Amino acid sequence: MFKSILSAALVISVFSACHPKQKNVEKTMHNIDHHSFAKPEEAVVKHLKLDLNVDFASKQLSGYAELSIDNLGKVNTLHLDTRDLTIDSVWLDDNMPTSFELGKPVEFLGSDLAIAIKPTTKKVRVKYSTSPDAAAVQWLSPEQTAGGKTPFLFTQSQAILARTWIPLQDSPGVRFTYSATITCPPDLMAVMSAENDTVLHADGKYNFNMPQAIPSYLMALAVGNFKFHAYDNRSGVFAEPVTLDKAANEFIDLPKMIAAAEELYGPYAWGRYDVLVLPPSFPFGGMENPRITFATPTILAGDRSLVSLIAHELAHSWSGNLVTNATWDDFWLNEGFTVYFETRIMEKLYGKDYADMLTVLSKGELENTIKELGDKNPDSHLYLNLKDRDPDDGMSDIAYEKGRFFLTTIEMAVGREKWDAFLKKYFAEHAFQSITTDVFLDYLNKELIHDDAALKSKINIDAWVFGPGLPANCPVITSKALDMAGTAAEQFKKGTPAKDLVVEGWNTHQWLYFLRQLPEKMEEKQMKDLDAAFHFTASGNAEIKCDWLLHTINSQYKEGYKALDEFLCHVGRRKFVRPLFEAMIATPEGKEMAKAIYVKARSGYHAVTMQTIDDMLK
Ligand code: BES
Ligand code: ZN
User: Fold this and answer.
1) 50 - beta bridge partners?
2) pLDDT exceeds 90 at position 14
3) Could you tell me the distance, in angstroms and rounded to a whole number, from the CA of residue 612 to the centre of ligand 2?
4) How many alpha carbons lie under 13 Å from residue 448 in its C-beta half-sphere?
5) CATH for 519-616, among 3.40.50.1000, 3.60.21.10, 3.30.420.10, 1.25.40.320?
6) pLDDT above 80 for 17
7) Residue 282 Cα, ligand 1 centroid: separation in angstroms?
8) Which candidate in 144, 311, 348, 587 could, as Cys together with 140 as Cys, close a disulfide (CB 3.0–4.6 Å)?
């Protein structure tokens, strides 16, 4: 009875927030998270208290999750998301045992944990343990770390993997504060997406507190042997001791990045901002866990050329962590805004030419993605429909780069000054809220477009947000530095020997552009010539190496096969691993090679990368 009244209320409120041009029927769906069993409109989690023991021998986290709830609808059941968790027992309030039922597992989503509660229930305490295969968690042996002596553990909760290590309402539309006690082996340190100590605790016990409400996908834990290097009183870097100096040197501009971000869009809201450098199996480039970004070591190029990734994760402290996509269909609100913001930070620190160079490179990647998707594919809309799918499947360059170019289009239409003022106000007025695409579009119209018909048609919101591909008004950005690299590639294609190309002083991005302008398949002679002149096979820059290894595969350049094998057995970052396997399986011989490499590499990959490559090779 309560249920129907509540859902009716939800539909009405969504109706009234509608963009006038859109169909109402479609709009009623926008607030519904297809990827969660939770019913936060009935009873919602406000605070989580975790008490977990970290056991490397059994690869398990076990202990208690105590959830403080607001039983809005005075309902008798609380629905939580779980996946592969063993639920031992559940208590209400002051230790009153209660019954629970774990639903049948659904692909990607896991099982609905339905707990019997009372209309007056304030606290629900769950005793549970994780599976050794919990998809969020990677347990690394000492050999898989840089130091080689102690094990390592890290979690990756986005998009819907938090439920594999904590029973909770795993929806980005639900925000809660948390505190945690983590007990780990005494020689290791634990950190979380919360207030952190920067020193080792001899008893292996760490207490954390996150006083600001966050969505579940920002829950994060890492345990390992790391040390801390402070830049100033609010930022620093954690890394394994053997990597710390390199990392500290690479990210030296971190305090300037934070200052630039604040100048652009308002004060940093989270207290400290630190970076934790993970082992190379980390499946992403970076993850914006609040207060402590998790980052791949593959950005430690030695010349600070890949630090835009740090600007990106930092920017999420506003776009994503402060103003959050309400569902994964609204993912572009997180990533598109963040790429835009990242580019503005880069421009402030290193100048417009540098930022434009990064933008032109990214646009090339976006155009490739659109080509692969085809010109009518709904996955190339900014607003996605991920119902009945793993959200991971729909998350592509579209949200990131089409999202960024949409925002750049608005900036160019209204002018930077107005646009920046709008964005600053947008972050301030939606801080600590999870919002839908519609809420953003309504706010945009109310604050900036004011129903101005000429401006509307100039921007063409519908084509950007609800249409496929790249709209005709997409901004054109150019880069002289990249044009130079493009010219050199043309000369090489026409027969100029590699050693005669003018490449002096080139940076990483110019090399990447050069490699991307070369033919997909080259003669052995050409590959050898390039390698002899520029030593690509031996490159220590993971981005350059990955592009070169793609050529190695496509051109069947056997001299590079050993490096390919080593790279794939060492690095688990999906952005690199996926295209390399894709290129290999395009030919029968390559597929055999892919299988042979994967047999060795698979056990070192995090579940996210493993899933992608398993699907590809099946
Ligand atoms: N939040 C993302 C990573 C993510 C997205 C994890 C979706 C799981 C699901 C992070 O901010 C990100 O975008 N990382 C990028 C780097 C960035 C510079 C484009 C990555 O990992 O490559
Ligand atoms: Zn991001």
Assistant:
1) 65, 180
2) no
3) 19
4) 27
5) 1.25.40.320
6) no
7) 11
8) 144
Looking at this protein, which amino acid is placed at residue 330? D
Contact status, residue 598 vs residue 564, Cβ threshold 8 Å? no
Separation CA 297–CA 239 (nearest Å)? 9
* Band of pLDDT at residue 315, cut at 50, 70 and 90: very high
Say if residues 343 and 381 touch (Cβ distance below 8 Å): no
Q: What residue has token string 């690869």?
A: 59
A 10 A CB-CB count for 415 gives 9
Ranges 14-23, 65-74, 497-506: which has the least confidence: 14-23
Q: Is 224 helix (H, G, I), strand (E, B) or coil?
A: strand
- Angle of helix 308-315 versus helix 331-350 axis, rounded to 10: 130
Contact 232, 271 (CB under 8 A): no
Contacts of 435 by beta carbon, 8 Å cutoff, 6+ apart: 323, 324, 325, 326, 330, 333
CB atoms within 10 A of CB 526: 20
76-114: per-residue pLDDT in tens?
Answer: 999 999 999 999 999 999 899 999 999 999 999 999 999
Higher pLDDT, 168 or 1: 168
- Helices 331-350 and 352-373, interaxial angle, to 10°? 150
User: Which residues are catalytically annotated?
Assistant: 313, 400
Residue type, 580: L
Burial class (CB in 10 A: 0-12, 13-18, 19+), 20: exposed
**Can the peptide bond before residue 453 be classed as cis, meaning omega within 30 degrees of 0?**
no
323-466 — its CATH code? 1.10.390.10
SS3 assignment, position 74: coil
Segment 386-421, tens digit of pLDDT: 999 999 988 999 999 999 999 999 999 999 999 999
- 149-204: pLDDT as tens digits: 999 999 999 999 999 999 999 999 999 999 999 999 999 999 999 999 889 899 99
| Residue pLDDT, tens place only, 24-83 | 333 333 468 999 999 999 999 999 999 999 999 999 999 999 999 999 999 999 999 999
- Phi, psi (5° rounding) for residue 189? -115, 145
pTM across the whole model: 0.95
Give residue limits of the domains in the chain.
36-225, 323-466, 519-616
Domains 36-225 and 323-466 share a fold: no
- With a Cβ cut-off of 6 Å, ligand 1 is lined by 158-159, 284-288, 309, 312-313, 316, 335, 395, 400, 575
425/431 Cα distance (integer angstroms): 10
245: its two tokens: 């100096």
Percentage of the chain lying above the pLDDT 90 cut: 93
Cross-strand pairs, 78: 115
Mean pLDDT of 268-293: 98
Nearest-angstrom CA–CA distance, 220 and 190: 11
Mutate to test the pocket of ligand 1, among 281, 287, 307 (most ligand atoms within 8 A of CB): 287
The closest-lying atom of ligand 1 relative to the alpha carbon of residue 391 is 9
CA contacts within 13 A on the Cβ side of 442: 15
Fold annotation for 36-225? Immunoglobulin-like (2.60.40)
